[in-house]
Amino acid sequence: MKTNWLKPASFICAVAVFIAACTGGTKTTTITDSTITDSTSTTVLKPAGPPPEWGKTIKPEMQAVIEKLNSYGDKPLETLSAADARKNHTPTDAVTDLAKQNNITVPAAKVDTIGKDIDVSGGKIHLRIYTPKAGSGPYPLIVYYHGGGFVIANLDVYNASAQALAEQVSAIVVSVAYRLAPENKFPTAHNDAFTAYEWAIKNAVDLKADPAKIAVVGESAGGNLAANVSIMARDKHIMLPVHQVLIYPIAQADMNTESYKMYEKAKPLNKAMMGWFTEKYLTTMIEAQDPKISLVNANLNGLPSTTIITAEIDPLHDDGVILANKLKAAGIKVDSKNYEGVTHEFFGMALLVPEAKAAQAYSADQLKAAFK
After folding, report:
1. Residue ranges per domain, the chain?
2. Looking at the predicted structure, is the pLDDT value of residue 5 above 60?
3. H-type helices in 79-127, by residue range?
4. How far is CA 73 from CA 21, 66, 78, 281, in A?
5. Which of 97, 314, 318, 319 is catalytic?
6. Who has the most CB within 10 Å: 91, 198, 212, 276?
């Protein structure tokens, strides 16, 4: 099973530099056409079976990752306690193991990382700070929020995304380990996210960053948090991010959209899991209509320019589309891109999945343009 998070850095295996979260290998029938040594290149993985019923358009590399994830035999997340769910294997584990089995070499990181604990209301949270090895700064600054439905995952699971942003944008990235539910109910994660943003602004100079060039990025639940940070910054009259990148964000509470219906049984995210996440984070279902959860109900005026990335085979696909339309209606400049044949969580899989490589490059270009 996957090791518990916040393990010592010395315990993280070499491949975790790019993908993180080590696990033991498991035999697979997946084969490869070639091997690579460039962390942003891909190799063609061939899945063992036919496309799943829930995702007939899935790309072969994406399917190979899902097959590997299925091979671990974990119980469905929605049948577990939060503590046990956090022990399940992750898509990151599947990518890590496939890379090992196919002799895909991960080069040395182009960033240095340090950990930092900061005070928040009622406790502390941990930050991981990525600093480019090249250059001397001041660098742009990105505050990054990981996914996991506000309940699971950690900085290791989403290391690939944070590191890719730091390397490809040549920016300082502050990755935020906000407190998780059900131990910490709504709106704890949202408040932690904003406190981390405030800390990043106040400490930008010490981080070798330019506080005038700050952006927020988040995946899934983290996409929701990133957007909320922009809203809170506007409302509290502190420095707005110059840009926000929202990657398959949770943007509303309606689980009857077309993408929820079409991909109800999808992996690694499905409708039942989303219901489980909601139950764990919220105290009552009335909170699901709160604008912090249902961003489509929020006041979106005056927010920064926005990039929204969606995956085709994802219950949250329509959340991103609806949010993009709401932002545009509020007069916000929005660039959206959908990646076909891939599922939720694809963004950090650039080592194996070509669409992830493309999405990371696109996000980096959007951020670099905003930082000019």
Report:
1. 9-101, 111-371
2. no
3. 82-85, 91-101
4. 18, 12, 14, 26
5. 314
6. 91
Rounded Cα gap, residues 28 and 3, in angstroms: 21
Residue with tokens 């339309």: 325
Q: How far is it between the farthest Cα atoms of the chain?
A: 55
Identify the band that residue 21 occupies on the pLDDT scale cut at 50, 70 and 90: very low
Is 74 noted as a catalytic residue in this protein? no
Whether 365 and 335 have beta carbons less than 8 Å apart is answered as: no
Q: Is the pLDDT of residue 14 over 70?
A: no
Tokens describing residue 11: 């315990």
In angstroms, the CA 368 to CA 234 distance is: 22
- Global pTM reads 0.90
Summarised one tens digit per residue, pLDDT across range 276-302 is 999 999 999 999 999 999 999 999 999
Measured between alpha carbons, how far is 41 from 63 in angstroms, rounded to an integer? 18
Question: Given the structure tokens 């489980």, which residue do they identify?
Answer: 276
- Which residue is listed with tokens 């991981």? 128
Predicted confidence at residue 43, as pLDDT, reads 60
Identified catalytic residue from 126, 146, 317, 344: 344
Calpha distance 196→209 (Å, rounded): 15
> Is there a catalytic annotation at residue 317?
no
CATH H-level, domain 111-371: superfamily: Alpha/Beta hydrolase fold, catalytic domain (3.40.50.1820)
Other Cβ atoms less than 10 A from the Cβ of 116: the count is 13
Decide: 296 and 253 in contact? Cβ < 8 Å. Answer: no
Please tell me which residue in 220, 230, 259, 294 is annotated as part of the active site.
220
